[in-house]
Amino acid sequence: MIPHHLGELQLRIRGATDPPAVSLSRVVQVDLLGLLGLDVRRPRRLQT
Fold first, then answer.
1. Are strands 21-23 and 10-12 parallel, antiparallel or unpaired?
2. Vertex 11, ends 41 and 18: CA angle to 5°?
3. How far is CA 32 from each of CA 14, 25, 37, 47, rounded to the nearest angstrom?
4. Residue 36: pLDDT above 70?
5. pTM surpassing 0.85?
6. Taking the CB of residue 39, how many other CB atoms lie within 10 A of it?
7. Between 41 and 35, the higher pLDDT residue
8. Which of 18, 19, 30, 38 could be stapled to 14 by a disulfide with Cβ–Cβ 3.0 to 4.6 Å?
9. Is 40 left (phi over 0), alpha (psi -120 to 50) or beta?
């Protein structure tokens, strides 16, 4: 799964002085969060 998604990453360069940014599609974000054991449907609440 990881090599497949690495091929979908896009590097965005905005300007000469701005750092490049990697854009992730929603599918890639959800899959990567799933690999980390995080569920976007159940956000964690900050403990105060």
1. antiparallel
2. 105
3. 25, 11, 9, 25
4. yes
5. no
6. 11
7. 35
8. 18
9. alpha
Q: Is 6 left (phi over 0), alpha (psi -120 to 50) or beta?
A: alpha
Instruction: Enter the DSSP assignment of 1.
Output: -
| Residue 45 tokens, joined | 């609440």
Residue-wise pLDDT for 12-32, tens only, equals 888 888 888 878 777 777 787
30 vs 6: CA distance, rounded Å: 14
Give the number of other Cβ atoms within 10 Å of residue 37's Cβ: 6
Question: CA-CA distance, 23 to 13, in Å (whole number)?
Answer: 10
The residue to which tokens 């974000």 are assigned: 29
